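agent: user wants the structure for Alpha-1,4 glucan phosphorylase from Demequina muriae. delegating to structure tool.
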Amino acid sequence: DTTAPSAAREHTVESFTREFLREVNFGQGVDLDRASTNDKYLALARTVRAYLTTRWLETLRTQRREQKKAVAYMSAEFLLGRQLENNLLATDLGEIARDSLDLLGIDLVELCNTEIEPGLGNGGLGRLAACFVDSLATENVPSIGYGIRYEYGIFRQRFEDGRQVEEPDEWLRLGSPWEMPHPENAVKVGFGGRVEAWKDESGRAHRRWSPDWHVTGVPYNYMVPGYRNGRVNTLRLWSARATQAFDLAIFNAGDYTDAVRAQTQAENISKVLYPEDSTPQGKELRLQQQYFFVACSLRDFVEKVLPEDFDLHRLPERITFQLNDTHPVIAVPELMRLLIDERGWEWADAWAVTQKVFAYTCHTLLPEALEVWPVDLLGRLLPRHLEIIYRINEEFLEQVREAFPGDMLRERHMSIIAEEPVRSVRMAYLATVAGAKVNGVAELHSQLLRDKVLSDFAEMFPHKFTNVTNGVTPRRFMALSNPRLSALITEAIGEGWVTDLERLRELEPLADDAEFRRRFREVKSHNRARFAGVIAERDGIEISPDAMVDAMVKRLHEYKRQSLKLLHIVSLYERITSGALPLADVTPRTFVFGAKAAPGYVRAKETIALINAVGRTINADASLEGRLKVAFPANYNVTLAETLIPAADLSEQISQAGKEASGTGNMKFALNGALTVGTDDGANVEIRQLVGDDHFFLFGMDEPAVSDLQASGYRSASYYEQDKDLRAALDMIASGAFTGGDRGSFVSSITASLIERDRFMALADFRAYVDAQERVEAHWADQEAWTRSAVLNVARSGYFSSDRSIRDYLARIWNA
Ligand code: 26Q
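agent: tool returned. relaying tokens verbatim.
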């Protein structure tokens, strides 16, 4: 970047080297010639951190002076990925650091690769939060992210005999140079206990919560730099500690072991990220986590971020709390409690403010993924909050009765409290009632929220409902991860596109430029080779760098239909081995999978085992002459995504229509020049509309077709009976062809469940999918046509920058 105010002027290689060496000596306490790679990594990280800190402090001073309205993004997950490279990119210190280290004989890339990524999220929702804080900073929005500093992030995945094994993610093992703990700003949070009534001198009735145990939240600050704009925002993650008072009381009582046990109980709260991302179990510790970080964050904002003696009646002028799904929704009764019990406000005043400061983003459509908390559990842990929720519900149902007199059924449907199967709080309903706005994450998803999941609420509060289509940060997912493509783009259209992604449109004419296409292919080819190198080293997987890279990477879920992809692979293999398909007609392809299964999700784990079994067989079959390969590197994470996505030619987005709220991997692939084979689901719909039907392989039932088929009675067995290729593929799996003749265990349970039930209609979409794959192959056979499509995918996907998402949030929600 030569036009941006270059860091070089204030930060020469020389001074960088001096600061780096200082960090080696005085930060790590070692001589350079005795320093380990980790010492050098930490020293480099701290050098960059110091540079950021100057700007961070300046950002904080400005905000204290100007007191602009801010956004607090509350999320139980922030799937950040590695920090060093990103921060070098944002500060434009990359070249200086490289030159400086070169002179010292140190390899920058090796240091970057030392970093263990903070995997503080499960998948899409957590990564979205990370993209959003990046874009908030880049779009110059005063904002703060609030979340949990899990000691263990998403588990590390290994395969043992093809089966998933989970290991703890010890991401803090080698030290964490990016965080700044602030124990002096710790916050105390209560749990359990009782609620008492009391009267003040004037005789006014009040309620008071006396918790019976407490936990201390220690804030850890992370700096979130905007892209070369001088702003550095804060991400504040909370870590749980035992409260000192609690410790002392028990120690003084002489019970040392009890005291230690109490400490452990407290610290358990931020110990580990729950690895389920759907069908959440109502686990008490999970609710403790949610209340813990939300209570800390509200108190922090009200008491530390806002000026002292700020009049909270004006809170809506200063903040929106954006709730990332329902995980932080307990913030609603917590703010009510704070205003009413702790500040003596009247209910109506507190409710008026509360309804203005919260907004809710929904990320799902699956009914089983909607969070509910049994009232007995919630009432035991947070008795005052349950009372408040009941009162919110009473007043809300009163409103429902007024709006729809005599409609008892509606009242029951809309109640925040579900009666069946156990009395529970429906968190999405609470969020919808309390929030000023409710948004879905793609056009189709928002429409389905209005029409189906929350239709009664949309009827009652039409003004609340809106859409903000997700986006991804082009900093990490283009500039950082795909430097070759980025350089080619910059050469073609100049600087500036990284923060103004619609400018990629200027590439459109180049799709017709043969020389540009050649260079584009060269970039892809380089990226494939780079990816091949990484998985060879990391996983011992050998692939040809010339074969088409066909990638399906996302959490393992039945609705995402990895099994449909697998049926396609098995069908190809079956047709080849049975002689129906001449090898010469088979497009050389590497089928790449990346997927973690929730540890308790048996069917998902069986699917992983089956993919690995099929892969082992196909990869070892010499008769294929290496034309087909299955590559399933373990432990797919942000870091691996950064080398895989730029290498991909084909992006698999094949969820059952109406099930994937948005998807964000789909956007990353399109922006890196992969073509999509996909259903009419989530943001695929918008991707296809933008890139055009000729450059997107659409297949399968759309959402209305799925609903109709469901209503008329779906019988998967009929597809098995009537499609001989499908039958042959399923039979081949069931015969034990991939499991050394073993027809038992997961083989029979997976095939039987597909043939007999097939919850997400993979069989119904099989034929359309195979046809789409044949269109893929025909298009690929014409490399010029394919490259043209790939370039147009890049050129027309600028809309999917998370910068645009943030601007949409500003216009539709935060300034509204
Ligand atoms: C809730 C309660 C208890 C335990 C776990 C959970 C939990 C945790 C994570 C529930 C859901 C999640 C994650 C959901 C998620 O990642 N959803 C995805 O969000 C993306 C960003 O909007 C969308 O693109 C995806 O379509 C959606 O599946």
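agent: one observation worth passing along. Confidence is low (pLDDT under 50) at residues 1-5.
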